[in-house]
Amino acid sequence: MAWTTPQELIDAALDGDRRALARMITRVEDGHPSAPDLLAALFALGGNAYVIGLTGAPGAGKSTLTDQLITLIRASGEEVAVLAVDPSSPFTGGAILGDRIRMQDHAGDAGVYIRSMGSRGHLGGVAAATPRIVSVLDGAGFPYVIVETVGVGQAEVEIVESADTTVVVVNPGWGDSVQANKAGLLEIGNVFVINKADRPGVSDTMRDLRQMLELGGDRTWEPPVVPSVATSGEGVDETWRAILDHRNHLETTGELAVTRRHRLELEFRRAMIDEFTARAEASAGRQTLTALLEEITSRAIDPWTAARRIVADLAEESNRGH
Amino acid sequence: MAWTTPQELIDAALDGDRRALARMITRVEDGHPSAPDLLAALFALGGNAYVIGLTGAPGAGKSTLTDQLITLIRASGEEVAVLAVDPSSPFTGGAILGDRIRMQDHAGDAGVYIRSMGSRGHLGGVAAATPRIVSVLDGAGFPYVIVETVGVGQAEVEIVESADTTVVVVNPGWGDSVQANKAGLLEIGNVFVINKADRPGVSDTMRDLRQMLELGGDRTWEPPVVPSVATSGEGVDETWRAILDHRNHLETTGELAVTRRHRLELEFRRAMIDEFTARAEASAGRQTLTALLEEITSRAIDPWTAARRIVADLAEESNRGH
Fold first, then answer.
1. Between chains, do B307 and A179 touch, taking CB under 8 Å as contact?
2. Is residue B259 part of a domain?
3. Tell me: the pLDDT tens digits for B128-165?
4. Smallest CA–CA separation between B71 and chain A, in Å?
5. Which domain holds residue A21?
6. Do A139 and A193 fall within a single domain?
7. Which residues on chain B are in Cβ contact (under 8 Å) with A207?
8. What are phi and psi of B168, to 5 degrees?
């Protein structure tokens, strides 16, 4: 139980110890000193998880649909992890917590792992933390990872960019709602689910949605629109089939390899910037950076000259350490 | 006319030579080798421009309102620069160009400078280029800079983040339109103008807008909602007064100093990352970076270890150069 090294933590997690897995995720979230080692070791084990993003306005029925998808995946004998992200909540869980309670139906099932994340303590924001946590779950061996988030703003759009297939959940009459960032959701959705399809207006919404999607222009993939009543399980099989169809499309066209490579490039770039920033702060010291910012504010120095100085100092300092 | 040094360019621009000013902006846009020197020299001269952001859906009447505001500012004897940004257009001008033609009413006026920017050739995106161009216009001595953009997505929201006061232009019946990113616009607006207020539905729109703004919670500034008919000049004085009220609010509460400092901090951070990236590419070489990315894609190395290697190499290389 006393996991002293990153490797011990990883071994325990791979053995199915959920507390070890939770500990690893917390360390990656918090930027614990062991986080780069954990990420590096898990990265070598990963690359096999298929990541499904699930987004939509609050109350659209995302969690119920997630619940049903979990049941479906588990029935096929596969394990699944769910990462529920609420960028608007400063606390882990937050508003999403109520929904999570329903998912506790799967609490006794060792093949399901559910994790909530709020915006607290993520220096680069939840959008930056999401791909890293997905990378942990991937390395830990889950063949499916569902990333669920409330889709209203840019942060949420960035969160589902970690996904291979993005499912957008709407309701009948969706076109009238003010809050939803419709243009953004239309752009990112690979599969659209009109949930609560037992309510009036479903055919209008379906027609509107298809029209708006057609305006999107010539794409190689035409996003299917699936009506569902997630509470009764209606349309869940069709949703899963649409996800698998999209996966098949991405694999046969080679798009999956291209977007995954692009995602890794972003992660590499982010890692370089983190590494550079950490070194610059350690080398120049926060005090120097703050003092420089004061000088910039009083226009005694400009941001570009100050930046050149910091980067040059970093090289100097680094060399002295050798 | 042969401006060979950055200082010659700056001197000419300060003397009122608009071609010299245009040349400086192009160099900053294109990342010309002299750009950092230009930015540095102009930064020392700046800090005095008041920046007004103007955004809204296509056809809302932004350019007509800008036109009227130019006339009003010029009547007070002050100079004004307009930066019109269209992030959706790959070309400078693009869709915005038609609107610009109207602004040519001011073409003979040496106290007005108008510049259009599309998304072409901006490595970090127009959102990153905007504050730098505003910084050039500020350094060139304009007391007012208007940044006009089509407000539909996140890029546009970021563009107006360069502004001290953001004016959001809507039309009666705005609540029904699908494309507008309403939540985003509500968040960023300091002044709301309901343009084309001679059309039906203006009182409903005004009520809806006020209700939505109230939901925004306890702010120290309550955004005024101004009805206008920009084509006839109706409501333009009121709009300008609302902008000056907001400026006064920002100055008396000290908020202006805080947000400007924050903006400079972002610029400093961005400059450090640019400087670091340029050095890393020059030091490691693009080939090495591409080769590392190949290794990452095949999972032979992880992004974090690769990043550490690049930053360490940068320090080495930099030292050998000394």
1. no
2. no
3. 788 999 999 999 999 999 999 876 566 666 777 789 99
4. 32
5. 1-43
6. yes
7. none
8. -105, 125
